[in-house]
């Protein structure tokens, strides 16, 4: 009976079993071009801050302020978990791994959620006699989106440049 072509799944399994180290992914990440040069703590912090725009940072700080004022443990827990995630990434960077931006998407997503929650809290606390929530909510939402447009445009250009650069990367190996 003729031997069939090798199944790609079996090749992956065989490479996992026969690799020199259980930590082959970590070994490959050591010495990456994308590793942070200089202060690892500031580098990871900058990578986290560069994912989101300044309006979302302000929204997150507002949500933290509302949570401290109201003693909202759910929001404080989310902030604490996002900080813990960033600390783990800092530890990875200190170990020598790359700590690339894709590993910081989760704390960035928490920032987005908390910014939206802060917008809702601000609307809930607005005096109804002076500021009507029916027109204040769309104005605040549009203002937040408008503040994010320049950041989104720049971020989109950066991502497009990275995709273009990576298209032929596998051929150069």
Describe the SSE topology.
Elements: H1 8-18, H2 24-29, H3 40-51, H4 54-70, H5 73-95, H6 105-125, H7 133-166
Helix pairs in contact: 3-5, 4-5, 4-6, 5-6, 6-7
Task: Give an overview in words.
By secondary structure, the protein is mainly alpha-helical. Helices cover 72% and strands 0% of the residues. It contains 7 helices and no strands. The two termini are 36 Å apart. The mean pLDDT is 77.
Could you state the order of secondary-structure elements as H and E?
HHHHHHH
Profile the largest sheet: none
Given the helix and strand composition, which structural class is it?
Answer: mainly alpha
Shape, principal axes of CA atoms? elongated
| Alpha carbon gap, first and last residue | 36 Å
Q: What would you say about this model in short?
A:
By secondary structure, this protein is mostly helical. It contains seven helices and no strands. The mean pLDDT is 77.
List key phrases describing it.
mainly alpha; 173 residues; 7 helices; elongated
């Amino acid at each position: 009976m003729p031997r069939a072509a090798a199944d790609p799944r079996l090749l992956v399994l065989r490479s996992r079993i026969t690799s020199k180290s259980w930590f082959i992914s970590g070994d490959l990440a050591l010495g990456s071009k994308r590793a942070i040069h200089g202060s690892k703590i500031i580098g990871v912090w900058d990578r986290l801050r560069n994912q989101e725009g300044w309006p979302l940072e302000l929204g997150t700080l507002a949500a933290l302020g509302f949570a401290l004022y109201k003693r909202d443990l759910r929001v404080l827990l989310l902030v604490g978990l996002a900080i813990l995630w960033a600390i783990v990434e800092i530890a990875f960077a200190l170990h020598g791994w790359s700590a690339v931006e894709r590993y910081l998407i989760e704390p960035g997503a928490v920032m987005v959620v908390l910014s939206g929650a802060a917008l809702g809290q601000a609307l809930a606390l607005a005096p109804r006699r002076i500021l009507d929530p029916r027109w204040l909510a769309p104005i605040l939402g549009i203002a937040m989106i408008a503040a994010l447009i320049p950041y989104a445009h720049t971020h989109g250009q950066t991502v497009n440049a990275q995709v273009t650069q990576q298209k032929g990367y596998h051929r150069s190996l």
